[in-house]
Protein 1
Amino acid sequence: MKNLIQSVLLLAMLMSTTGAEEFIYYAQVGEKVTLKPPGVHPQKYVYWYFNGRDLAWRNTMGKTWTSQEPRWKDRLSLLSDDSLIINNLEQEDFTTIFKFEVYGGPSEYTYKLLKLTVNSPSPLLPGDSLSLSCNAVTQGPNNLKIHWLNPQGVKMRPEQLHARATSQDNGQWTCVVTNARQTHVANVFVTVIDLSPAPLSPQYTSKSRPLTVPCSLPPYISWDQIKAKGMQEVHWQFIPEPGSSPQRLFSLSLEDPLTWKPELTRGLRLVQDPTKINLSLTRDQGSEEDRGDYVCTLEFKNVALTRTVHVKVLQITSSPGTELISGQQLNLTCSLGHPLPSDLRLKWFPPKKSSLSSSSLGSGGHPTHLTIPEVGRGDGGKWRCELWQNDTRLTSAEITLKIEPKLSVWMLVVICSVTVIVILILILVFILYQHRQRKMRHLGRRLCQCKTPKPKGFYRT
């Protein structure tokens, strides 16, 4: 009896080692799959078959071969660990039985491909219905677990997803299918048409720096896709102060070719032509009037996509002006037109010969206002004020001062003397002129003493 039991156990072991072991792989049409055999088989003949026909092999010398039949040519690769890569999967591949065998080995392994399909939604607008489905063909008991990963990698439980699209949904979604042994994934790219995010912080400029107001569409979005969604208008607006009426700067004509129509440009221009999907505005040199909010808008039938960019202008003002005389008091102010937030600081850079140096202002943030009781010739030149946030310089502003020297006592005496001489010369000229006028009148009276003078000549008496 004991021998009979041992024989049965040995037969069962032999059957289990010689029987074919089956692996299930999920994949998508048009993608690739990697079939991996268990274990490593160095210096062994290994074979891959499909429906009983040779597909690929490796000999003991490491030489490999893959089928050159039209169906498989240029689609197969045999890796060093004997894994088989099948590229560009076709519909027929899902009805094929693949087998892996080690020559002289105890067993063979069977591989079946089951189709995994996901729907690919057309480009969406924020607020559109987003519907994603992931379907896996099953064989035998359905022990599959399916979930989604959104573009941020967050796990979403339902196999079928229904939600309202937002800009966060744009990107690659991954359907993850897990069976008893392996995990399989299927990717689908969801396109949500939206403008690129606006800068989190304001754009800073000054009279000494250029200005760029960013607005663009992601590079994977085309104008054809935008037009297909029923785009009605694209325009830029400017709001000088909160609560004030918007001023329209540019509008985009949707007729071919796409062209911008300027309305109230304020000296701004478009960075690129509209076909490049870059809608940014720019100017070579900032201006005090640039301060305000710029609104970039794409209007569709049921939704308007907008991005607002806040522009701040750093400005230096000098009192009493930019032309001073040595000894005058100088007041300089560098500001954004309002008190600085706590995370911003200023740095002053006076001229090299100035009586006020950067080091004397301290290593931290410098004051908004500077006062020099008596300016000297060394204070003339270029003053620069920089705006910093942590270790980042945001912008800078510059002003040039002209300092004239004081007038000395000797110079005053000379000026007064010259003035007196000029006045005396003018008086002398006037006296001479009057004297000449009187002399001319006296001479005229002497030449004419009678009312009817006789002509000269001889007369009879």
Protein 2
Amino acid sequence: MMNVKGMMNDEMVKSRGMLPGFITAQGRQSEQDTSGFVFKNCEIKGDGRASLGRAYRGYSRVVFYATSMSNVIVPQGWDAWHYKGEEDKITFVEVKCTGEGANKQGRVGWEKNLSDTDIDFLINTKTFIAGDGWMTTLPSSLVSLYSPSSI
């Protein structure tokens, strides 16, 4: 569960509102970089306002899959941040999400719609998260924490 909290300062009090935050800030150096953030079966709630994410580098990749989103999510959902004009390189995706915050009306027009095959690859523990075999190097006491049945 991700809990969004708001914070006020004197400037925000004068403007009568809290500044929205960002749940993620992922970045890849290039298209060949295999990293990314995947949020699967999560719950987002709180008392602040937040974007799902912002681009930290030009090839950011974030997937929210089957996530319950409360109304804390701002309508536009995503922010290109310093990469405005380069949104075609950014991969921000929401699939099978629920709740008031998952309403895509008002979302940025450059949010990606990936194929089922691409989504399956990104949410599958064996292909994306452990694709390079790093999970096999974990101590046996941790393996059950990261097995596909627990993720």
Protein 3
Amino acid sequence: MADGLRRLVGAESGRVLQEKLESWYRDYEINSCDQNLNRCCEIIELNSEIQGQLFTILNETSQEGGHYAGVETIKTRLLPWLGTCFSCATSGKLFETNLSLTQDSIEKERQLRELASNQTFQLQELQEELTSTRLQLSHVQQDLAKTQLALEDTKTKSATTLLAAEDEIVQLKAALKTSCAQEKDALRKLDRLNDYEQQIQILRDEISILDAQKSVLQSRFVRSRSPSPSKSPSPLPLRSCSPGRARRTNASRRACLVARFGDIYAQERLDAETDLRSYINDTERVQRIIYIAAVESFRAAKTAYRQFKIRVRDTLSLGHSGPESLEDAVLDYIVRHEDLYDVQASVNEVISSMNINPKISFPPEIDFIVISTLIRELCRVAFSMQTLVPPLDVAFGIDGELFSETKYHRSFESDFTAALVAYHVWPALMENDVVIVKGEAVTKRGALWSHRSRSRSRSRSRSTSPLLAHHLSRSRSPSPLRSGSPRR
């Protein structure tokens, strides 16, 4: 039995029967009647062969169990089937069953064809997407190649620029070293010159004091030898004035001086800018020069006022008597005799300070004496402001400080969004750290650093110029300008 079953399995009769059925089903519509009948007969013959082999296996299997083995199974299953398998009803049912199986097979085959068609369509779409992706990748690779070429070009240009910048830095360092050496030499000479000026001023003060003491001694000597009482000559040319007049007129003098300070800003400053523009085309340099001239004028005037006050106090203290204090008498005397202030000496001092100021530069063929009119008026106003109680002074400003709305107006060329002061145009007038008159400043973004770099590269020293030595050797009396400077 086992051998027969193995032969049946090895022959694959069942698979061949199924294939013939499927082939017949596919070609049924295109075959002729005879062809379909032949196919059906072939299938019946194949099916009968399979049935014959199965009956042979059934016989062998029943023999292996003995004489009476399998009797019950044959009675209950095989014999009833043999009795009814050839009946019409059974044939009809089998036909219906075969027809249902055939329809199911057709439906599954149709589904398989639709699934294969869908898969083919999806495969085509994927192939199209793959083609599009490859095309985009090709474009990206081309763009990447172009970008790499541009990057290499930029690297080459940057290397060239860096080499040029390094050469320029070396040259600037050499120029800076030379400028520093010149500046140190000029500072040494300036220190010596200041020492000489201080010694000369000390000697002049001593001479003035000795003259005053001599005048007092002479007046006492004349009074002691005079037989009748007479008025002794005054040690200083006093004018008729009631005690404390300077303090009583302080408010009116303050108002006049503040108004005069505004007039200088509106008139003399503009005239000075016009004179400087004939030599300098840079507006920033012109405005810086005028601002430094204003600050230096106040400094020189305050120094001269202190020295003048010391001399007057020393003189009046020798013979002071009266209801007012010595300080009030000194202040009254200075107010009455402001014409004794040597304004030309302060003008010379301001010009000397400006000549060595590293923040401003000037053509070597001319001098700052071209704006001496502005400096003289500022010195006079600053000197008179020191006689006020309290005195007035200008605000101290530095480049790069935070802009203050209460202290300065923005110039029209300013960047109104910048917070730092690039440079000052006019100082603010102060009274006990309170702003009386606003100044003017310029605010710009990045202008401070650019100006510092320019000032370091072009820091000048005018102390070696013969014009400075010639200017400092002038007397305190006004001297005519050189032929190349405009006369005011």
Protein 4
Amino acid sequence: MAQGSDSNDTSYKSPSPGGRAVSNPDDPKKVMRREKNRIAAQKSRLRQTQKADSLHLESENLEKENAALRKEVKQLTEEAKYLSSVLSSHEPLCTGLPPQTPDLLYPTHHSSYSTSPKFGVYPNF
């Protein structure tokens, strides 16, 4: 026999699922439906991949931002401690300021205060 002869074609074709017989595997409606389904599945997988990539990038950016903010908080805390210690060491030496009393910190309402809308409520000096 010559090669390429189709007379001894013994290729195996699996039975259809559920034992149903397929009337025509080349039915144009089924081919179109399968093609549409294949394209829809590809698009769905692509969207999932893009969403995962996007979430991964967002996560990395948020981690970097979080690390930068933690570093800034640490620096500001150290600066606040330093300034507090400078103030504490300077207060005993400072003779130019009168001791602060609650009245100076929270003045009572007097008629000598200006209520001009331009400046708010401030004492007239």
